[in-house]
Amino acid sequence: MKKTYKIAIILIVIFFLSTTGLSKELKSTNLSDIDPLVDLTITVDILKIRSLEHDDPQLHFREIIDKKTDPDFYTKIIVNGQEYTSDIYWNTRYIYENLPSITVDVPDNIESVDIKIQLWDAKDEWALYDRLCDISPDDGTSTDAFDAEISYNLKTGHWTRDDYVGDISGYGRLNGCEDGTIYEADRDCELWFDITFNDFDSDRIPYFIETNQLYTDPLVDDSETDFDEDIVPTWWEFRYNYDPKSYDEHDKIDNELDGISNLNEYRTYEWFSDPYTKDLFVEMDQMEEGPNGELCIFPEISKEMLYTAYDRQNVVFHIDDGQWLEESGSEFIPFDDLSTYSELIGIQNQYFYDNSPQPWRKDVFHYGVVVFRNDRAPGMAFRRNAYQISAGDLDDLAIEHGYDRDVVYASAYMHEMGHNLNFRPIPGHGKLGWLIRIIIPVYKSCMSYGMIYRMCDYSDGSRPFINSFIGDYNDWERMDLTHFRN
Fold this sequence. Notes:
The chain has helices at residues 2-19, 24-27, 207-214, 234-239, 262-267, 300-311, 323-327, 341-354, 391-401, 405-420, 433-439, 475-478; strands spanning 41-51, 55-56, 61-62, 73-79, 82-85, 94-95, 101-105, 112-121, 131-133, 148-153, 159-161, 173-175, 189-197, 278-283, 315-320, 365-371, 379-383, 386-390. It is an alpha+beta fold. The longest helix is centred in the N-terminal third of the chain and has 18 residues, at 2-19.
């Protein structure tokens, strides 16, 4: 009966539109049916799952979800009390594909839908029971302090409570470290998700908003329309609580001071950027294989280490490691056994500035190139927005000192990025650096020459050195994400 009723309503709506436009009856809200055009359902999509814990002896803590293996993740999504449990993803810390998606029929006359998202580590031969992982901004040890409680509004199409527009961790991103347990064994994880509803015109704007606030046509897709001519389309402005019919200077607005304007946040939406969350973008170009099998490829695990280090601090790290090169018809930079300073400048000019199919990238991305060897150092910042690491030199260092190769690459890359972030002062750098490194113990950051190649993290100011009476440098607090733009 309900479907028959709704078909009749749709026919009535079409009649009014064809004669007098939107009628007063259509503009008003029917309290018994939030959207008379459809039988309302919501869809919860899990987009990414990542463990934020790792072993790091230099930080003097052991963070691990599973003691013997990688986590065995699964999710529980609870909608209005009804539970949906996913399959188990065995023995993996990072999940990017084949993730859960559920669609649930919801009451059409109740404005709010209660959603709870839980991330679990399944028991295996090493664990006696399933354990809840932390994806909540709340502190404590209760279940509520580990799962995410969401209230989804069917009238507005937005959600609130443990995640909301303007949340520093990102809209649709949950971070278990947000409760301050970054350096504790708290089973911290990050989980990316989205919640959508079935919309008659598929423009991602609810019927109530279209008929009572925007006064747009709920039968016409307005998602890509730019009513206020500020270059940003309706769907993006609506998602982040901007008025699609009121002009905003999106090319100048930078809410979170990460050096990326709203316009460029919109352009990088496919990379999960957020106008209220600190985003850090880097283009990573790599050289092709050398004539004797020399490799200049950045390890995949090293990338995950970088994501984890930044993401734990709600600085969301994004690497583009070759997509634009494919568009230009080349996969790698031609091999060179030794890259000089002037050649590095030339590489950036050619592959980042001149050949990029998207000129705006220079206002968004840092440039971190992987070469084989450099005539000055295994790593070096050569411009305010650019740096290099040398694969051949780093491989030699790992073998010579017995360091973990993945850590060596990640640490060197993070160190050179730190120069783009304007960390000053840095003990051990400068003309008397060799003497400072001898007489003053290093602070616990990959920016320190005493810790580089052995850890992938900046200092947070909580780990003082010299028997605790000389303070630490808080790299995360003094980070300047806008420095590369100046």
